[in-house]
Design a protein that fits this description.
Helix content: 40-55%
Shape: globular
Largest sheet: 8 strands, mixed
Number of helices: 11
Distance between the termini: 5 Å
Number of strands: 12
Mean pLDDT: 93
Order of helices and strands: EHEEEHEHHHEEHEHHHHEEHEE
Strand content: 15-25%
């Protein structure tokens, strides 16, 4: 038997960072994000072998273990093994041979939520195999808990929900710990214009987000006013972005992205750097009205809003920085699971 799943990566549009504890626990957070046609894929194939094989084909990493209900967390393929360990703890199933393989359409550390989306995809494959009774909210929270509690990985809450739900969403993170996902009912014309004008650019550098996130966390604990106020403004930005999208006021989107990038720089050191600033300034000089660094910052993908016919000029302006423009489209469907045989 073969069980497969895929979950979409996401572009953050507003509010990024306000979904990270302790800010979201103390003040509540809000983000706007959009699922895109880049995916994390997972396949579980039952075998007759007395072994468990975990493999990330895109990273050329593979480990083989004898049958056991707890795999070592040792710095290699920990996301895959962490999901298996938690499933065996909460929903134990008879030990039997299987091969778990994964692949992600973007590099780790690129700012599109790759790690969390991979956890969702692996969890989805096990859910399909075991027919676990979890709705979308339960599944997203389960993935979040595996990452943050079991594996002790730094990060926020939005990526898991974007991967499970799909679509363009306004997400609220309550001080109670509850999450509310509102899929924005945007006209197809607005979606098409947004997709045409939002350019996704890979800087050709990845980064370790943990250090940036940990500084952001410490800034909240230490009541760093500049950082906390910036997060307050980013939460406001998410509300404004939601309104602009619902009212098909796409001319506001570039300005809101630019405002958000100004605030995000204040959250922690190393969110931006000279290379990112040069890329950003070149894009704006070529006609982009705003943009942002994806994820925690420091590298990875950037997005730029290029109204009218400026996309071509912006693409040309970025060609000298060693990165590349990544094609994509928005997707409404979130996590998809199936049994292949």
């Amino acid at each position: 038997m073969i069980f497969s799943s895929k979950a979409p990566l996401r572009i953050g549009l507003a509010g990024g960072g306000t979904d990270v504890s302790p800010y979201s626990d103390m003040f509540g957070g809000a983000v706007v994000n959009a699922a895109i046609s880049l995916y994390a894929n997972a396949v579980i194939e039952l075998t007759n072998e007395h072994s468990i094989v975990v493999e990330a084909t895109d990273r050329n990493e593979k480990q083989v273990f004898d049958l056991r209900n707890n795999l070592p967390i040792d710095g290699t393929l920990d996301l895959l093994k962490g999901v298996y360990n938690r499933i065996q703890k909460d929903h134990p199933f008879p030990l039997k041979g299987f091969r778990l393989t994964t692949a992600v359409d973007a590099p780790a550390g690129s700012g599109l939520g790759t790690s969390s989306t991979l956890v969702v995809a692996v969890l989805g494959a096990f859910k399909q195999m075991l027919q676990l009774p979890m709705d979308n909210y339960q599944l997203a929270h389960y993935a979040y808990d595996i990452e943050r509690s079991d594996l002790q990985l730094a990060g926020g809450k939005q990526d898991q929900y974007a991967a499970v739900f799909g679509g363009i969403n306004f997400m609220e993170f309550k001080t109670t710990g509850n999450v509310m996902v509102t899929t924005l009912q945007i006209s197809q014309d607005c979606i098409q214009e947004l997709q045409d004008n939002l350019l996704l650019y890979f800087t050709n550098s990845s980064r370790e987000s943990a250090a940036i996130i940990n500084e952001q966390v410490n800034n909240v604990y230490n009541n760093n006013q500049q950082s906390v106020e910036a997060m307050h403004h980013l939460k406001e930005q998410a509300v404004w972005m939601k309104t602009a999208l619902l009212q098909h006021n796409n001319n506001e989107i570039g300005r809101l992205l630019d405002y958000g990038f100004t605030q995000k720089r204040l959250m922690a050191h190393n969110i931006s750097n000279p290379q990112i600033e040069s890329i950003y300034n070149a894009a704006k000089k070529a006609g982009a009205t705003g943009g942002k660094i994806s994820g925690a910052g420091g590298g990875g993908f950037m997005t730029f809003y290029c109204p009218g016919n400026t996309r071509t000029a912006v693409t040309a302006a970025l060609s000298s920085f060693g990165g590349y423009v990544k094609p994509y489209h928005f997707v409404q469907q979130g996590l998809i699971t199936q049994t292949l045989s």
